[in-house]
């Protein structure tokens, strides 16, 4: 996996700094991970909050989608039963 050494903060445009790097074993290869943060602590916190919000939103969307899919399945089942009766 490649990562960019230079990474710009999406909020303030500052060049991000490396907070930490760590190696992770994935299958048979070792992947190097890099966590980059904004040099401005306050800005970084806001960015993290935004990421968290986005994550929550994504979870919500996925849940709703799964609910709808389940609902559709039930309705399909119902329709099939109705068709058989006729
Ligand atoms: Zn920033």
Notes on the structure:
Residues 54-80 have a biased composition (Basic and acidic residues). Residues 54-86 are annotated as: Disordered. It is built from one helix and two strands. A two-stranded antiparallel sheet has the order 1-2. A hairpin with a 2-residue loop joins β1 (17-26) and β2 (29-37). The chain has one domain (17-85). The protein has 86 residues and is of the alpha+beta class. The structure holds zinc ion. Zinc ion (ZN) is lined by residues 9, 11-12, 14, 38, 40, 43.
Distance between the first and last residues' Cα: 57 Å
Task: Identify the bound ligands.
Answer: zinc ion
Mean pLDDT: 90
Trace the largest sheet across and list its strands: 1-2
Major sheet attributes: 2 strands, antiparallel
Q: Rough shape? A: elongated
Per DSSP, what share of the residues sits in E-state strands of 2 or more residues? Answer: 15-25%
Quick rundown:
By secondary structure, the protein is of the alpha+beta class. It is built from one helix and two strands, in the order ββα.
Task: Furnish the topology, listing elements before pairings.
Blueprint: E1 17-26, E2 29-37, H1 41-85
Antiparallel strand pairs: 1-2
This protein binds zinc ion.
């Amino acid at each position: 996996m490649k990562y960019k050494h230079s990474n710009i903060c999406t909020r303030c445009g500052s060049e991000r700094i490396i907070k930490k790097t760590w190696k992770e074993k994935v299958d048979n290869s070792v992947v190097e991970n890099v966590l980059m943060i904004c040099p401005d602590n306050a800005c970084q916190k806001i960015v993290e909050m935004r990421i968290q919000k986005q994550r929550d939103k994504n979870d919500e969307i996925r849940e709703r989608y799964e609910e709808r899919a389940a609902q559709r399945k039930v309705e399909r089942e119902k329709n099939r039963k109705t068709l058989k009766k006729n």
